[in-house]
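Thread: "does anyone have the structure for this chain?"

Original post by V.I.:
We have the sequence but no experimental structure in hand. Need at least a predicted one for the grant figures.
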Amino acid sequence: MEIAENAALVVVDVQKGFEEAGFWGQRNNPGADDNIAALIDVWQATGRPVVFVRHDSVKAASPLRTGYVGNELKDYVEQRRGKGAGPELFLTKTVNSAFLGTPDLGAWLTEAGIGQIVLVGIQTNMCVETTARMGGNLGYDVVVPLDATHTFDLVGPFGWRRTAQELAEATAVSLHGGGFARVVTTKEVVGAAGR
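Reply from O.Q.:
Generated one for you, tokens below.
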């Protein structure tokens, strides 16, 4: 696997509000945060660009709403902001795709000549998947280390209920099988980026 010298790591919605299990329900992949931290560290140590994304929910009851402590980035992410040798972008959004945030992610990537993005964060099947699909549609080489993401159990139509792990696997199959992104492991990305 090849990770470009200027590949951007896009850290999606790693916010304190996602720790509120009473609101979200059961999550998968308890190792996601350690993997996200490891990838940020590699990116910053190698001078690659990092994009930090925050979801500013417009829903009054959401733990991610602005003005509430849950809107803040998790401590381990906030503590890493501004510490890298490479360029950094902070953007906010109110929808699922980081490409529809402020400032404009696509414009920033284009201006920097970046063609490859590595997506990590929360939730696998929501904002990570939506950003990956849009990135693929826009012509970016999208890489998703699945074990650096997590999600929550969800109930859909017809009484269908899927576990967080089932949803993560469905995302992986859709993204990888559909050609939107390459779904890989954190270990693979760290190995390729650290060379």
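V.I.: this helps a lot. The chain has seven helices and nine strands.
O.Q.: and Strands lie at 8-12, 50-55, 88-93, 116-122, 141-145, 149-150, 154-155, 161-162, 182-184.
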